[in-house]
């Protein structure tokens, strides 16, 4: 993976040369006016966009992107705007309710419709609400969704509402585009029993073959894969360009002659690829890539804002104050999957108190804000951003042996230098030690509940999320455990956190409390990449 701060990359294919412009402020143009026998195509691309509003740091915002799209259309009539996956979930708005119904990504499709998106490929998070919701969002969309490797088991065809590929005439040049999503979606999200995510290379080969047979002269792969998988794709099938997502990192490189471009998340930047194509053959004569920062300097688009007016009451509600935190809260995704954080301890403390449990355990992957929230006022948006997935708090009666097995599962995928697993446990009411030098399944060396050694035969009241209680993230030991009745039915994590923020009980601490001890870690502790997918 190549992470750069460059703004432009120009590729002169006829000379078999790659020219990388690395100076700040480079324009990325390939000439003001293309020759008469050339078709200029501009591709605007984004990936992993979870909100249509600017971020907390006032970056991004699809209204600003709409302004840049209008500017591009003034320069050339041939503009394609692409989304390389992940937008329906997880986000604050997708978890919010309007007229008693959870949006579940509806607001994002409305935003993409307002922007005038041309194509999207499905990402892993498009399946977070299940197949039925995804179908509803596909029907709502005024643009095609691509997913060549998303297949119905019953029909053997591509998932209903998706296309494997599409062909578009651009100034007389036939441009083909196909989409694929990473196979891990099968287990990391919630595709239905009839839905299979098949190998992406095979699906891409089939799509490219069909596109070429249909007359495609230029073929683009719109992918939601890891960068390693994008490289594999470039090697297994010949395409002219890959526009990708998922990594939340800027990537620019050429593999097997195929340029690969990816951006970070939430539209904080807009990618712009300018292509000069031979009008007769579709061959690439020139290619330039430019990354445009989306900041407050870019004005909003009035037409976009007008179409999104129905969501103004929701945005006002999300800005409401729910309480305060006396200390900063570490909501960085990677840190909550590596070890104890002050936020992880605060969340589990609040959940344990709300359910009257002895202990509490949640998966670190449920914590999604991916930043340190400053001390002070907490709004409803910040409350929802901490845990945007729609879950319920539940109480289970488990044996000490089951609790130990849960902790073993939580640290089973942890490694000294690997990707932090979403199943990593944040806990309350207990302390435990695990050893990375030991084999998974036998790593937990010590567990104490309320200062006493865990009794495998004893019964404990456990507070957790419904996602965990249903056996997800490897917590199969909870799957058949009956849920205990509670005084408040359908208690949500937001209910418990809102009460804690408003009353100050329990109060978050400034630092972790030593609840989780790791042995066998490298000197300097465990470290991970800054963002998670």
Concise account of the structure shown:
The chain is α/β, with parallel strands linked by helices and 533 residues long. It folds into 2 domains: 38-312, 4-Layer Sandwich (Purple Acid Phosphatase, chain A, domain 2); 320-519, 5'-Nucleotidase, C-terminal domain (5'-nucleotidase,  domain 2), CATH 3.90.780.10. It is built from 15 helices and 30 strands.
Write a structural description.
With 533 residues, the protein is α/β, with parallel strands linked by helices. The protein has two domains: 275 residues, Purple Acid Phosphatase, chain A, domain 2 (4-Layer Sandwich); 200 residues, 5'-Nucleotidase, C-terminal domain (5'-nucleotidase,  domain 2), CATH 3.90.780.10. The protein has 15 helices and 30 strands. Strands 2-1-18-17-3-4-7-8 form an eight-stranded mixed β-sheet, covered by helices on one side. The protein has a six-stranded mixed β-sheet with strand order 10-11-13-14-16-15, with helices on one face. Helix 7 links the parallel strand 13 and strand 14. The longest helix has 14 residues. The N terminus is likely disordered.
